[in-house]
Amino acid sequence: MSYEKCVGCGSCVKLCPMFDAMGEEQFSPRGKLYFLQVMDLLEGDEELGKEFRRLLFQCTLCGRCEETCSSGVNLLEIWHKQRAAAVEKAPEEFAYLDSLRNALANVRNIYGLAMEDRAIYWLDELVDEIPELEERVYEKGKTAETMVFLGCVMSFRGSQIDVLRSLFRTLERLKVDYLVLGAEEFCCGHPLYLMGDDKGADELRKHNKTVIQDAEAKNVVTCCPGCLIQLKQYHDLEGVEALHHTEFLDRNLEEIPKFNQTEPFAYHDPCELHRILGVTKEPRSLMEKMNVDYKEMELSCCGGGGLLRMTDPSLSEIVIQLRTAREGVKNSTVLTACPSCREQLMSVDLKTKDIVELVDGALGGEE
């Protein structure tokens, strides 16, 4: 197995947000690998196995361990496979995930809400401001060059409405030929992927692929890095390019008017966006085009990924508390490009904006 490449150097330990939060070796990548090695030698030790399975889900899968590993250990693949094995071996230990699995199986979203509601919440809120929006919701037979994949968080969380308003206004100003999947959108499968359920995730992906390709789309755009991982790497889209909204906007806006900045900004890089997908240039390019002055925050996790908010919410809270305290951003507006990161930042009462809100403001949108 690839974990045997680990030389135990500990380069991953100090940089791990779980170790930073808990201060105990077993929470670190090296600690988890040690558990795995010992378990291979001590087959049948139930207490050891139970502890290891718990630790696997006390992780955001942020990828910082793999990024820093000088031995080239594919740690994210190891955690993925081990999570799948853990749930299969001891499903009773993960009964708290049943509600999520059932919601995804029955109504195809993480909140357990009716499928048709995917287009109702934000459409009701925004249709008076953007009258064209109602015609942008996908129905069978409609086609468009660009499909907008909102994802569960953006579709259902009222806290994301400002981002959606700015996204749609910007697309309208750019005269983009686009449709929003609406009620035909299924969850991208990322939550199931994060618990190792590739089969369940694939059932959701197949539907999305069919709809996107039936719409004859050339690209699919999402604000959610988790959704983008699934669309880009696992949906097997044919002739369709999956893009983060910052990539799409940077490509389509060579020049942007200067943003009227009246407050200090700091930029938080979403882990899944910059580490796993390698999208680092485009968010900064957009900010540079608008002449935005911002502080670069440390490339560290917010604590919101890997299902951690469900598997260990107290640990997730410690991670975001430590991150924001260390950065000294209490009096700044934290910019980011991920709905889950925004939820985490707002949970500690930080003012936050998505980059598309700045683009909208620079192009003439209301502040």
Short structural description:
The chain is an alpha/beta fold. The chain is 48% helix and 8% strand. The strands form two sheets. The chain has a four-stranded parallel sheet with strand order 2-1-3-4.
Structural write-up:
The chain is an alpha/beta fold. It folds into 3 domains: 2-89, Alpha-helical ferredoxin (Fumarate Reductase Iron-sulfur Protein, Chain B, domain 2), CATH 1.10.1060.10; 98-252, Rossmann fold (3-Layer(aba) Sandwich); 265-362. It has helices at residues 17-22, 29-41, 46-56, 64-68, 75-89, 98-106, 120-126, 151-156, 161-173, 190-194, 198-214, 225-233, 245-252, 271-276, 281-289, 308-311, 313-327, 339-347, 355-362; strands spanning 146-148, 178-180, 219-222, 241-244, 265-267, 294-296, 333-336, 351-354. The strands form 2 sheets. A 4-stranded parallel β-sheet has the order 2-1-3-4. Helix 13 packs across helix 15 (281-289). The mean pLDDT is 94.
| Total discrete domains | 3
Radius of gyration: 21 Å
Sketch the major β-sheet: 4 strands, parallel
CATH class placement of the largest domain: Alpha Beta
Question: How much strand content do the residues show?
Answer: 5-15%
Which architecture of the largest domain does the CATH hierarchy give at level 2?
3-Layer(aba) Sandwich
Find the structural class using helix and strand composition. Answer: alpha/beta
Q: Span between N and C termini?
A: 53 Å
**What percent of the residues sit in helical stretches (DSSP H or I)?**
40-55%
**In what order do the strands lie side by side in the largest sheet?**
2-1-3-4
Descriptive tags:
single chain; 367 residues; alpha/beta; Fumarate Reductase Iron-sulfur Protein, Chain B, domain 2; Rossmann fold; 3 domains; 4-stranded parallel β-sheet; 19 helices; 48% helix; 8% strand
